């Protein structure tokens, strides 16, 4: 009878060890998911800041030359900024959130 009890005890011990290993693995995966979530949040915040900066650059440039657009004319600086923004948008669209963001140079005043 002792042999059967020893076998059951060993099987139970093995099951407990297996469950502990599974729980430890889940805990590590949870930590990793938390880190990835923080990275994604930072990337999204970086994107928002870059978008706000671009919007401000365009607003300033357009305000400075508003009188020229009476005849639908835009100065070279705003056209250059628009081209650079289009390039950045293409890059963001093709590389997704994981790639670092490239911001434009400040406009020439």
Helical/strand content category: mainly alpha
- Biggest sheet: strands, sense, closure? none
**Uncertain ranges:** none
Instruction: Give the terminus-to-terminus CA distance.
Output: 92 Å
Helix run count: 2
Give an overview of the whole structure:
The chain is an all-alpha fold. It contains two helices and no strands. The chain has helices at residues 2-64, 76-95. The longest helix has 63 residues, at 2-64. It is rod-shaped and about 100 Å long.
How is this structure best summarized?
By secondary structure, the chain is mainly alpha-helical. It has helices at residues 2-64, 76-95.
List the helices and strands and how they pair.
Elements: H1 2-64, H2 76-95
Quickly list its features:
single chain; 109 residues; mainly alpha; 2 helices; 0% strand; rod-shaped
């Amino acid at each position: 009878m002792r042999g059967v009890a020893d076998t059951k005890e060993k099987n139970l011990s093995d099951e407990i060890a297996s469950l502990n290993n599974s729980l430890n693995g889940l805990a590590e995966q949870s930590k990793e998911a938390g880190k990835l979530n923080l990275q994604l949040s930072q990337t999204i915040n970086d994107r928002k800041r870059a978008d706000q900066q671009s919007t401000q650059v365009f607003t300033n440039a357009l305000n400075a030359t508003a009188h020229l657009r009476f005849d639908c004319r835009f100065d070279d600086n705003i056209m250059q900024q628009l081209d650079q923004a289009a390039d950045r948008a293409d890059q963001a669209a093709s590389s997704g959130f994981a790639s670092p963001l490239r911001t434009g140079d400040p406009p020439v005043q």
